[in-house]
Amino acid sequence: MKIIRELQTDARKPVVKIARGIGANEATVRKRIEKLIKNGYIQRFTVVLDYHKLGRVIKSFVGLRVQPARLKEIVDHLSKHPDVQVLYRTSGDIDIMVEVIFEKMEDLNAFLESELKLEGILGTIVTIVIGPYKRCPWTGL
Asked: Quick one: fold of 58-128?
């Protein structure tokens, strides 16, 4: 887990620095990373954007109640929207949780008014993130 934590902090960190940081041999760390990749524990290395610098600071979670027969159609439609970051299948009162990030509140409002008029959406609950206690490692928000 020490190697994974180091890579989550900075995937571009040289193996030699990771090895020093966790008190292990460089060759051992390199082999463990290769094994983590080969066995599918590490699926990819990606870029984490600073959404604040991009001017995209309105983060919201939109809970949807949907007709089960329309679930796939709704998910397919929403997954194509560029501002939808994540779609979760959930249990309880909400069937789908949609994570979105926008530049302005007006953009969020436009999304709610246009994209959520799909047949099969029975209800919505919109929660706007005011501020983080712990930031998301992928979006920084």
From this structure: Alpha-Beta Plaits (3.30.70)
